[in-house]
Structure prediction request, 409 residues.
Amino acid sequence: MEPDAMRVRLHLRRVRVVGVLVDLMERLVVEIADVRRVVRCPHCGFNTTRVHDRRRLVIRDLPTGGRPTTLEWVRRRFSCAECSERHWEDHPEIILGRRTHVTRRLARQLVRDVNIMSIREVTRRHDLPWHFIMGLTRSWSERVAADRRRRRRRVLLVDETSLRRGHRYVTVVINGDIGETLAIVPHRNSRALNTFLVAQGHRWLKGVRVVVSDGSVPYRSSIQQHLGHATHLLDRFRVARWFAAGMIEVRRRIQRIGPHGSRPAFDPQVFRSRYLQLTRFDQLPADRIEALGKVLAGRPELEAAWRMLQHLYGIHLATDSDQANQALGTFLEVYADHPLIEFEKLTGTLLEWGDEIFASHDTDRATNGRIEGTNNKLGVLKRIAYGFTNASNFAHRALLLTPGMATSP
Ligand SMILES: [Zn+2]
Prediction:
């Protein structure tokens, strides 16, 4: 053994440095062994010390002081004195793949990197095969997911997202209390959601008190079938978009001046204030209210649409269902006086989803609006990976992503 050998400190538990094989500026290779002398036979449970033979395995580790580091593990095969069966030893700090082997701490670093860059970039950075990184991500995420799904969940969020813009949809199920992803299932139909819910089992489903969905009909049928006991409500952002849709359409109709091709095509005053028109009244500063007043004055349809939108917002702002009903009533009064065609569809939707919209007043407000947050993270992931073609690869990476990443494999 070289005199320098013992200076290498790996800080790996149960690992003994046998010697330093290569000690160059650009590379460090260390021979290691397990410190244990006695191991338990997995076949009969008796202790044994009899080594049948040894084999060297190359284990990739984190860089040591910036130097790429490889460990050569002298792995022993024991032969049991009691039952005479043979077995290869395992090590808690080493993850064995089919061809590539890494230390557990390197695996942790790889999974951390997978969250912020594409698999190909991780492959390049660590000089490891693509399939190894993806396989590691997959098995790690399966473990994380299994652990998350075992625990009872009080609030579920159900949403859909696409792998690429507008292509290949998947159903995302989120733990609404902290925003972590529980499952990502291919497709966005009731069968997709049923698959997840059935697999969770009756006892687990019983623990769910609140389900927040995006207002899709297939999800609703699945929720009614399996979570009929829970309160079903709609994601507030989705409902707010429904509310705003009528206003936007009225504005588009009104802003058009004259026939096609005329200049200017749009009434600039109406067009420029389009975001102002969608803002909640209680969030408008005084000077903005004045500016908005000028736009609405002399445009009765636009003003009616704006008032309707504000009453719709009132449904969400209400502190109880009485107040919400009042806001809905006032909305319907304005609508009766100004039956704008653009709000017709919305009134139908309000009737159809009234229960789920009003249910938010009977539940903890804090459970609302987390779908958006998780969706943002999934959007970032899609950009990192330049879109996904494989739903299961996306699912595995998304599971690791939210919210606090896995800390132990
Ligand atoms: Zn044995």
